[in-house]
Amino acid sequence: MSDNAPAVPHAPAPYDAVVLAGGAARRLGGVDKPGVRVGGRALLDRVLTACAGARTTVVVAGPRPVARPVLWAREEPPGAGPVAALEAGLRLTTAEQAVVLSADLPFLEPATLHRLLAALRASGADGALLTDADGRDQPLVAAYRTDALRRALAALAAGGDGLTGLPLRRLTGALCLTRVPDPLASFDCDTWDDIADARARIREHGHVLDEWISAVKDELGIDLDVDTGVLLDLARDAAHGVARPAAPLTTFLVGYAAAQGEGGPEAVAEAARKAAALALRWEEENEAKDGGGNTRGGGPSTPDAG
């Protein structure tokens, strides 16, 4: 390689994900908490979407339909607690780093996991975890070095009583940890009030559109980032310059045209540009007047003969 060649940025280190989804949810009356819907999506699916960048994702729970392929594991005996569940999930991982997540995090985003993994690498610690609005550690929204986790789990198991029923603090207390404050991403749904709060929050004006787009993409199996501002501008132009029903029909046709072409964000943007230009031309024609009156249609009126 030439000395003057540009430096190639390091690719992010691969990571695995372990999602604990087998709790009893006693504070919710024993309901199937991972299946509770917030913003039209099951809590577990929301978490699985956030960690879609993982090389391997292990869900510790009984198998169920989910938004993307995962591996399933189960602690022995079932219901033995979070430490035993984590050990069961970790057996199926191979990456040097793993994110460990609960299944009830409605506001978790891929960017949060990237921050945790970056903090883990930069600190040299055994783990990087989020802290909530009160500054409390959240060990189930964290990134860990898998070898450190395995050593700590083996030490606990060697204590004679096994891992059943152990609280997570017995595990994390043996690790060197760094902390990343994030009150929103660490918000979990332990009670029905928490779920009601989460459902209300995603419908706030500043969040509802992004939430809806994410939900639709998940439902349709679409992995495509598009400029929503471009599409909204197009819908506005079509509604104003043509007719209100033209807005949804036009955006549908733009999506169809993009799918027929390259299908990427650039194809969507190009189709939207063409349709927006057409809508503006349509509006100009509607508003066109000749020098002497109110003729529409984009051309001058024809004077009456005689």
UniProtKB/TrEMBL annotation:
Coiled coil: none annotated. Residues 205-286 form the DUF6457 domain. The keyword Nucleotide-binding applies. Residues 17-158 form the MobA-like NTP transferase domain. Keywords: Cytoplasm, GTP-binding, Magnesium, Metal-binding, Molybdenum cofactor biosynthesis, Nucleotide-binding, Transferase. SUPFAM superfamilies: Nucleotide-diphospho-sugar transferases. Pfam families: DUF6457, NTP_transf_3. Residues 291-300 have a biased composition (Gly residues). GO terms for molecular function: transferase activity. Residues 284-306 are annotated as: Disordered. This is NTP transferase domain-containing protein. It comes from Streptomyces camelliae.
